[in-house]
Amino acid sequence: MSAPTPAKSPAPTDVAFLGLGVMGYPMAGHLARAGHRITVYNRTAAKAERWTAEHPGRSTRTAAEAARGARVVLACVGNDDDLRAVVLGPDGALAGMSADAVLVDHTTASAQIARELHRQARERGLHFIDAPVSGGQVGAEKGQLTVMCGGDPQPFEQVQPVVQAYARAVTLIGPSGSGQLAKMVNQLCIAGLLQGLSEAIAFGQGAQLDMERVLKVIGQGAAQSWQMDNRGTTMVQDRFDFGFAVDWMRKDLGLCLDEARRNGCALPVGALVDQFYADLQAMGGGRWDTSSLIRRLRRSRP
User: Fold this and answer.
1) Is 59 helix (H, G, I), strand (E, B) or coil?
2) Which terminal residue of the chain has fewer beta carbons within 10 Å of its beta carbon, N or C?
3) Are strands 145-150 and 133-134 parallel, antiparallel or unpaired?
4) What is the pLDDT of residues 165-176, one digit of tens each?
5) Tens of pLDDT along 4-53?
6) Residue 294 backbone phi and psi in degrees, to 5
7) Whole-angstrom Cα distance, residue 253 to residue 114?
8) Whole-prediction pTM value?
């Protein structure tokens, strides 16, 4: 159920955005520029105040206050525990939402919490869509995220035009939890690709090849990938001060491995690359970009 961004902008909507981190801050900005009436909440109030100084909108002291009167409530926080903190309880979003409103969660979290929050929302006459994103900080800033959704068709259709303010593709994958499972597939693909690319570049450099030239050539053939196009040259140059951090990838791979244990699926490469990322953390590289996997190989060379 993917659709291109409509030529005509949707009617302005009362929207709440919870979580103004490196992703949420620009995403909320795109909503404001699209003409939606925005209320923001962030656990660190100073960041919410900075956002309202730069954009039309207001901030509140609790997620419940931000959600009050909003037809669509969007969240983008760190993990399952952060999500529970901002959604549940007397100050959480569900406590403030009006009947038939939709909560859209952009956090990369577990499929279990997606199903849990979907159930709790339904019990209150509300709706929940799990909607993790791919594209990283750059994609959020450019409004070019890919959004993978799980939930019921009617609320998905209600929120899709709103989410398209910062997305190039918004797709309903299946029932609740399907968006999170699709994001796990995405992260496993990236992890395997980056390890293969790291080994290939290290091998080529060990063979004294001009790897920037090699990448330009093989990037025109079957080896081409987004990772090669966007990270290959910076890997050759040993530059890793941008993009998606190792710490975040380890969190995401942990979700993949937990889910695999539940469904009986073997992830030998995923488990191995997760340990390689643990090595990078031990090297002090928790905030390096995920393409820094090649630094393990450079360290091990004689």
Assistant:
1) strand
2) C
3) antiparallel
4) 999 999 999 999
5) 444 346 789 999 999 999 999 999 999 999 999 999 999 999 999 999 99
6) -65, -25
7) 17
8) 0.93
Q: What is the distance between the alpha carbons of residues 253 and 299, in angstroms, rounded to a whole number?
A: 23
The pLDDT tens digits of the residues spanning 243-292 come to 799 999 999 999 999 999 999 999 999 999 999 999 999 999 999 999 99
What three-state secondary structure class fits 2?
coil
Q: Which two tokens stand for residue 248?
A: 């975040």
Residues 6+ apart with CB under 8 A from 164: 5, 6, 10, 170
How is residue 1 annotated by DSSP?
A: -
Residues 6+ positions from 57 with CB-CB distance below 8 Å: 28, 32, 37, 38, 39, 40, 51
Q: Which of 235, 233, 156, 175 is nearest to 199 (CA)?
A: 235
Which tokens in the block code for residue 76? 């983008």
Is 265 buried (19+), middle (13-18) or exposed (0-12) by CB count in 10 A? Answer: exposed
3-class secondary structure, 45: helix
Tokens coding 18 = 């919870």
Q: Parallel, antiparallel, or unpaired for β 127-130 and 72-75?
A: unpaired
DSSP output for 39-58: EEE-SSHHHHHHHHHHSS-E
User: Which residues are annotated as catalytic?
Assistant: 183
Under a CB-based contact definition with an 8 Å cutoff, are residues 103 and 115 in contact?
no
User: What is the per-residue pLDDT across 144-170, written as a single tens digit (0 to 9) for each?
Assistant: 999 999 999 999 999 999 999 999 999
Q: How far apart (Å, rounded) are the C-alpha atoms in residues 301 and 207?
A: 13
Given this model, what pLDDT does residue 301 score? 63
- Radius of gyration, alpha carbons of the chain: 20
Amino acid at 272: L
Which pairing describes strands 72-75 and 102-105: parallel, antiparallel, or unpaired? Answer: parallel
Q: For the chain, how long is the longest CA-to-CA vector?
A: 65
CA quadruple 134, 83, 110, 136: dihedral, nearest 10: 10
Given the structure tokens 């005509």, which residue do they identify?
8
CA dihedral over 254, 23, 147, 294, signed as positive or negative:
negative
Helix (H) or strand (E) holding 107: none
